[in-house]
Write a structure and sequence with these properties.
The protein contains 13 helices and 10 strands. It is an alpha+beta fold. The chain has 3 domains: about 110 residues, Butyryl-Coa Dehydrogenase, subunit A, domain 1, CATH 1.10.540.10; about 120 residues, Butyryl-CoA Dehydrogenase, subunit A, domain 2; about 140 residues, Butyryl-CoA Dehydrogenase, subunit A, domain 3, CATH 1.20.140.10. The chain binds flavin-adenine dinucleotide (FAD).
């Protein structure tokens, strides 16, 4: 039972509605469900299907295309709740792409593309879960991507390699980012990059896409892939938005997404603290509950305070980010991601320590939260790159990346 409250921000009526609806769905997926998924390395499709059936993949899709037409203030509540209810960062990761990858289509897709896909995403029939940007030689330095889409008549021919593309096994499409002009020929490295929609089954059956899952140790239920594209022919109408403008399309909406990632970290941290507190109250050593010892209390209390601070920052920024208030929101979104990931890590670490030896026993789940919390310091952007942004854009220090 949830005994640790997390009410440092006041929710609007709409946010309370979102929280309660999501909580109802999550109640059917207990700790055992998530533990088993992690152990078996199996995608949580029952959970994802349930969310899809209730229309949650359309949360950001405008109502005219069958979506809910909500915004960041609602999605932060949704994702915090999903993580906090027991799913942790894995559950959030299992669906994050499915919600965000339709945003470029909403903003930049042609009317035909919108009508073809958005209603079907919103009702859970079509999954656009995958986003392929990172390459073996282009992670943090994402404008160095080499995957190339060459225009030939009314087609693009795509060749290249991607790495760490998540959920390809649970998706109908990949939103693929590729160069359409070589980096050496553009004025600015952010130019000459474009965004495409790739039908996964079609590309595989034509023999132009090969994929291999990457063995890894965090969020085992959500798989990430290495992809090889060889002469993949895409009709020109699969271009999303404007040719050469794809990097700007990626950047647009990044603050919103950072805040939602922060909310996922906060939910994971809350979950870890709850489990740490439960165990600290139950476990008796030297004739008293271990939670009576300040060595156990303080790390949990400190992480709680840090999580609540990150939550206030996240929700405050979420309330204004959709109005695009410029640089100040960029700073807040980056700070929120940084602080929330650090707080989640501190919370998971304190929960593991409170469990003693059982901290590494899978049956108590906290070792899973710890692995996931560690991952939040790496994805979708590393903590260092967030600090680079703050150093340059907020403090006015020389650009370092
Ligand atoms: C589980 C998982 C799922 C992922 N899913 C996706 C996905 O669906 N789609 C996708 O496109 N990508 C995905 N990624 C990729 C992820 O976005 C990258 O791993 C991340 O951006 C870092 O890139 P990199 O791994 O190449 O690290 P690198 O860029 O090689 O960096 C290595 C280290 O050096 C540091 N560093 C590098 N340059 C600087 C600098 N200038 N200043 C300070 N520090 C620096 C970094 O912070 C990092 O600690 C995923 C990754 C993981 C692990």
């Amino acid at each position: 039972m949830k005994t640790v409250t997390s009410d440092s921000v006041e929710l609007s009526a709409q946010q309370r509605l979102v929280r309660d609806s999501i909580r109802d769905i999550c109640d059917d997926f207990d700790h055992e469900y998530w533990r088993q998924k992690d152990k078996d390395g199996e995608y949580p499709s029952e959970f994802v299907d349930e969310l899809g059936a209730h229309g949650w993949f359309g949360v950001l899709i405008p109502e005219e295309y069958g979506g809910a037409g909500m915004g960041t203030p609602e999605v932060v509540v949704m994702m915090e709740e999903i993580a906090a209810a027991g799913g942790g960062f894995s559950a959030a990761q299992a669906i994050h792409g499915g919600i965000y990858n339709s945003v470029p289509i909403v903003r930049y897709g042609s009317e035909e593309m919108k009508e073809e896909l958005l209603p079907s995403v919103a009702n859970g029939d079509t999954a656009i879960q995958s986003f392929g940007l990172t390459e073996p030689n282009a992670g943090s330095d994402s404008t160095s991507i080499e995957t190339f889409a060459k225009k030939q008549g009314d087609e693009y021919v795509i060749n290249g390699q991607k790495i760490w593309t998540s959920r390809v096994d649970a998706s109908d499409y990949i939103v693929l980012v590729a160069r359409t002009t070589p980096k050496s020929e553009v004025e600015k490295r952010t130019r000459g990059i474009s965004m495409f929609l790739v039908d996964i089954d079609e590309a595989v059956s034509e023999g132009s896409l090969e994929m291999k899952a990457i063995p890894k140790s965090a969020s085992n239920a959500v798989h990430a892939y290495e992809l090889w594209f060889e002469d993949l022919r895409l009709s020109a109408d699969r271009l999303i938005g404007e040719e050469g403008n794809g990097f700007y399309q990626v950047l647009d909406g990044l603050n919103e997404e950072r805040l939602v990632i922060a909310a996922e970290c906060i939910g994971l941290g809350e979950l870890a603290i709850q489990r740490g507190v439960d165990y600290a109250n139950e476990r008796v050593v030297f004739g008293r509950p271990i939670g009576q010892n300040q060595a156990i209390q303080h790390p949990l209390a400190k992480a709680y305070a840090e999580l609540q601070a990150a939550k206030m920052l996240t929700y405050n920024a979420a309330a204004v980010v959709d109005e695009d208030t410029g640089a100040a929101v960029g700073a807040q979104a980056n700070m929120a991601k940084y602080l929330a990931a650090e707080a989640a890590f501190a919370a998971a670490d304190a929960a593991v320590q409170a469990h003693g030896g059982f901290g590494v026993a899978t049956e108590y789940d906290v070792e899973r939260y710890f692995r996931e919390a560690r991952l939040t310091r790496l994805v979708p952007i590393t903590q260092e790159l967030v600090l680079n942004y703050l150093g340059e854009k907020v403090l006015g220090l020389p650009r370092s990346y």
